Amino acid sequence: MSGLRRFLSQPRSVFGAGFLLLLLLASLCAPLITPYDPHSLEFDPFLPLSAQHWLGTTALGQDIFAQFIYGARLTLLVGAVAGLIATLLSVTFGLAAAYLGGAVDEAINTLINVFLVLPGLPLVIVASAFLRGGGVWPVILVISFTGWAFGARVLRAQALALRERDFVQAAVVAGEGPGRIIFREMLPNMAGLIAANFFGAALYAVLSEASLSFIGVGDVSLVTWGTMLYWAQAKGALLQGAWWWVAMPGLGIALLGTSFALLNFAIDEISNPRLGGGKFRLPPLRRPAQAGAGGNPDALLSIRELNVGYLTPGPTVRAVRDVSLDVREGELLGLAGESGCGKSTLAFAVTRLLDPPGAVLGGSVRLAEHDLLSLSPEELRRVRWKEFSMVFQASMNVLNPVLKIREQVYDAMQAHGVTDKAKLDARARELFDLVGIQASYLDTYPHQLSGGMKQRVVIAIALALEPKLIVMDEPTTALDVVVQRQILQEINDVRRRLGISIIFITHDLSLLVEMSDRVAIMYAGEVVELAPAHQLYAHPAHPYTQQLMNSFPPMTGPRTRRSGIPGKPPSLSAEIVGCPFFERCATRMPGVCDVKPLQTFPVAEGQTAACFLYDPTVSAALKDNALRDSQRAAADLQGEVSREPSRSVNLN
Ligand SMILES: Nc1ncnc2c1ncn2[C@@H]1O[C@H](COP(=O)(O)OP(=O)(O)OP(=O)(O)O)[C@@H](O)[C@H]1O
């Protein structure tokens, strides 16, 4: 959805922009709306509300409605111009300080600090008093130059944080110039804050102008909402019962502030795609798989017909579709599949860590006696770490840099009632021993540890309360291969020693086959094959699994071509009819696989596949045809390889 459509689809932006636009139009077309001159003193004083004078008249006989409409012109002008100048100054100083750093940063920071300690309104009063005459411009200038410092400080802080972000560093490495980095990489990420700065400064200007006028500083011969308040107070409007003379400019300022705030929210939401919740649009759910959906009552973790989606402004992204899986006690269940197939979404949903716009759309997750999806936040707090824990890819970044490792290891245990210092120390040492780190590292800070050690610390924390289940989503991906191997070995040892169940997620199928008891293969949000690891290795059943296995070159034997899997997975926002792998499948059966609702079929002992090649109701002739075609295609491919001149490989 385009930015404008998203803007128009939100009630708050429609109200905010609607009121502002209405006011702007009314003030610009004032002569068409009211026949009266706001300065004209031609009427009787204090006339009540009537058809001729919608808001009555002032003590001097001016039409209040005309004053309100014409007064909006200068009030809006003050807000817009002072807001713009102050924001421009804030952005320029804030970005220059953050980007240029060094002496420039110090100089700007000092300037910001000086302006921040200057008392705002008294300074405006003094400066305006000196600059009397010249209409509203002195007020605008004074307000602009006294109102930029706070915004500059906030923008500087955000720019400093952004400058360290990976995408900005990548742009620097790619050789982008400072202008492009600031305007293309950094500024769009600051749009929400800049908008907030503008609306804040504009409101400050409107309120300051009103306050200055109210106390008689500034040019009270002009018509603004501020001067209306001044005259109403000076002429005793409330004593005369003419409350609308006070109420109208007051209400105008309040509504203007509200519309600024609403517009600010709306711009923040549009400029930040992560806040774009959008409407809940749920595509129809596919029938749940039948075979294998019954579940094993002895399983420790039982996931049933789980559906998870991302409620984006467009169609819902159905990232996990009717997934049913069991994890047994002490089992290591591997979960593999290509990028974007929904592995992490499944892990986040199971551990209740899914953030909006992600949402569980249906299904259940039971861990021992706990129905995980219906636990209250308090129940979840009690169960998490004690019954299940998780380790994610960049988990090492969760370590607080200013706290010693010991305190961070203690935290989870203390939150669950272990307070005895001796017990905490003994347990921390035991955990470090388990994950292969010397206990002396307990008294270091995270920056003193290597990436591998930090990841081991996180694994130790995940083990601290001996949970029944640990969900590990690519826990070693950020580490080098040697450290990866060591840590995986330790994870496996610990699991065997403590009898913990693990869901282990990775792209690396060969690794998974080596360490798992069973492996589930995901494709386009669905589990397409589930089998004991050795069975999956020796006899992969689903064509997708076969092609995945085929993507890894064998260590021994003749040279064969690794072609990868042609094509790409279907869009997860669309409804998928039949098998999601149909388009890429070498053994597809048109008229069956692209038409029938997908089901899971038993293949061998403990092995199931969501593939119609194992559907007993599909004729053997059709299956034979499909298999023959795919074998012919494979033979053609190998023929091409053998015709290519061979290359020798030097391993030295
Ligand atoms: N916040 C989000 N909003 C919309 N779609 C999302 C969001 N997060 C993930 N997705 C989509 O959900 C799908 C599944 O993503 P997920 O990260 O679970 O896959 P994955 O298999 O873990 O991938 P990887 O191995 O690369 O981490 C992808 O198509 C992704 O684009």
Automatic annotation (TrEMBL):
Residues 72-264 form the ABC transmembrane type-1 domain. The chain crosses the membrane at residues 76-99, 111-130, 136-155, 190-207, 213-231, 243-267. Residues 303-549 form the ABC transporter domain. It is found in: Cell membrane; Membrane. GO terms for biological process: peptide transport; transmembrane transport. This is Dipeptide/oligopeptide/nickel ABC transporter permease/ATP-binding protein. GO terms for molecular function: ATP binding; ATP hydrolysis activity. It is a multi-pass membrane protein. GO terms for cellular component: plasma membrane. It comes from the Bacteria. SUPFAM superfamilies: MetI-like, P-loop containing nucleoside triphosphate hydrolases. PANTHER family: MALTOSE ABC TRANSPORTER, ATP-BINDING PROTEIN, OLIGOPEPTIDE/DIPEPTIDE ABC TRANSPORTER, ATPASE SUBUNIT. The keyword Membrane applies. Keywords: ATP-binding, Membrane, Nucleotide-binding, Transmembrane, Transmembrane helix, Transport. Belongs to the binding-protein-dependent transport system permease family. It comes from Deinococcus radiopugnans ATCC 19172.
